[in-house]
Design brief:
Blueprint lengths: L16 H19 L7 H20 L5 H6 L12
Helix pairs in contact: 1-2
Length: 85
């Protein structure tokens, strides 16, 4: 199934930041799920995961600090890594 991508669809560009942050977070989590089962992977393979999580955090921090939504969505930062033994 193919879909269309629409950017700034809410007419509130700053209001869209949480949508993009969540998208980067979900993309990073999807890559973690792919790489965790592998016995080993290179630093180069992990770079996109780190980039996506860091960018998600940056976007969450850009949102207004008083927003309850930010605190709930940014909670993933404190979650333990799924790959830890």
């Amino acid at each position: 199934m193919h879909g269309n991508v629409v950017l700034n669809f809410t007419r509130h560009a700053k209001g869209d930041l949480h949508i993009y942050a969540r998208g980067y977070q979900q993309a990073a989590s999807a890559l973690v799920e792919v790489f965790c089962p592998k016995p080993d992977y290179s630093d180069a393979e992990s770079c996109p995961i780190v980039f996506l999580y860091r960018h998600a955090i940056e976007l969450y921090l850009t949102l207004p600090a008083h927003s309850v939504h930010v605190r709930k969505q940014a909670a993933f930062v404190s979650q333990p890594d799924k790959c830890e033994n």
